[in-house]
Design goal:
This protein is α/β, with parallel strands linked by helices and about 120 residues long. The chain is about 35% helix and about 20% strand. Helix 2 links the parallel strand 2 and strand 3. It is globular and about 35 Å long.
């Protein structure tokens, strides 16, 4: 089993990129890759329950559905701690599969030779 990282910086400010990032993450998880999505800057809002509920891009499943499918497949959603705190979000309320982490966790994941795509 290999590893695969998707780095996402967008949320409602670029719904298309946010959606495609989770389409790619699901494809990687479905290909038996240990897959991690790293949410930073504005994308950390996606880790809060209900935030993605109204994000639906034509031609794709709703983002909340894609995120739930990813978590159910064992995908990890790592959320940048400083970015989350900067926005005053509640660390006790996260979507399934999400964990608040520091940048060192991303480095650790990538240091094993994981490819990473960014959106």
């Amino acid at each position: 089993m290999g590893r695969f990282c998707v780095s996402l910086t967008c949320a409602k400010d670029n719904r298309d990129k946010a959606t495609v990032a989770f389409v790619v993450a699901n494809a990687a998880a479905g290909s038996e890759q240990e897959t991690m999505v790293f949410l930073s800057t504005e994308a950390v809002r996606l880790a809060t329950p209900g935030y993605a509920d109204d994000i639906k891009e034509e031609g794709f499943a709703p983002l909340a559905e894609l995120m739930a499918k990813f978590a159910a497949a064992g995908g990890k959603i790592y959320v940048c701690s400083p970015c989350f705190k900067k926005r005053g979000l509640d660390e006790t309320k996260l979507v399934a599969g999400a964990t608040i982490v520091g940048g060192a966790k991303l480095v650790e994941f990538l240091a094993g030779g994981s490819p990473c795509v960014s959106f």
